[in-house]
Amino acid sequence: MTTKPYVKLYKSQNVGYVEFYNPPHNALPAQLLSELTTAIANAGKDDDIGIIVLQSGGDRTFCAGANFNDLAAISNPEQGQTFFMGFANVINAIRSNPKIVIGCVQGKAVGGGVGLAAAFDLCFASEFASIKLSELSIGIGPFVIEPALRRKLSRSVVSQLTLSPKTFFSAKWAREKGLYTDVFSTNEDLNKHVINLAEELARYNPKALKEFKKIQWQGTEHWGELLAQRAKISGALVLSSFTKAQLKKFTKP
């Protein structure tokens, strides 16, 4: 596998596969977040695509959330808000997309990666796809992704995840709480199921699927403004002395 970061969109059997990769743990810098938003939007406009599958490259971590080097480089609130809008834009691209977006989570999801899982219309995972919200441990919080989390999970579950920032919760736990639709014992079984389901759904009436998605996302029309407000909160907190000190532990000088 290539060691270079990428976002790509490819098509097969009327399914659009959006894949991102950034070694070693699929943490997402601002550029990849922007490319991911564009790829999801382009797939939604493509008449040859009936269903979208979003996945990451590699067989370990699905997404480790924000790139710490990018976070450490933020020097003012405006830069901070702009960075956190990266995840907000991806979530809104999934939310506003006219097509069903299926998530394929083959490994651990941390922070913003959990937010992506929550934003999918359906999300399937392997048993290796444990989850963790680590934001509080570095002095910020899962503010941008919280609306997506709360749409899928109860407030008490979101609180449990947020206030246990050093704990990984198992994929089976995440399925029981409603984040994952189903969990598979191997990545091979996961991929086979997602492909088969996506290809089947892609044969259904696209207008019916579009109307169903609109109904499922009713009440989220204000998320453009809401997530921007949340990004502003995170963008300010990332400048705190606490967070700067924590980030130094994880970034190269």
- Assigned CATH superfamily: 2-enoyl-CoA Hydratase, Chain A, domain 1
Low-confidence runs of at least 5 consecutive residues: none
Number of domains: 1
The end-to-end span amounts to 28 Å
Radius of gyration over all CA atoms, rounded: 17 Å
Beta-strand residue percentage: 5-15%
Largest pleated sheet: 6 strands, mixed
Query: What fold name stands as the CATH topology?
Result: 2-enoyl-CoA Hydratase, Chain A, domain 1
Nearest-integer average pLDDT: 96
Helix percent reads 40-55%
Provide the CATH architecture. Alpha-Beta Complex
The strand line-up of the biggest sheet is 1-2-3-4-6-8
Order of helices and strands: EEHEHHEEHEEHHHEHHHH
- Overall, the morphology is globular
Total beta strands: 8
Helix vs. strand class? alpha/beta
Number of helices: 11
CATH class: Alpha Beta
3D architecture notes:
This protein has 253 residues and is of the alpha/beta class. It has one domain (6-187): 2-enoyl-CoA Hydratase, Chain A, domain 1. The protein has 11 helices and 8 strands. The chain has helices at residues 30-45, 68-72, 77-96, 112-119, 146-152, 155-162, 171-177, 187-201, 206-216, 223-237, 241-248; strands spanning 6-12, 15-21, 51-56, 101-105, 109-110, 122-126, 131-132, 182-184. The strands form 2 sheets. Strands 1-2-3-4-6-8 form a 6-stranded mixed β-sheet, sandwiched between helices. Strands 5-7 form a two-stranded parallel ribbon. Helix 1 links the parallel strand 2 (15-21) and strand 3. Helix 1 packs parallel to helix 3 (77-96), helix 3 runs antiparallel to helix 10 (223-237) and helix 4 (112-119) crosses helix 5. The chain is globular and about 55 Å long.
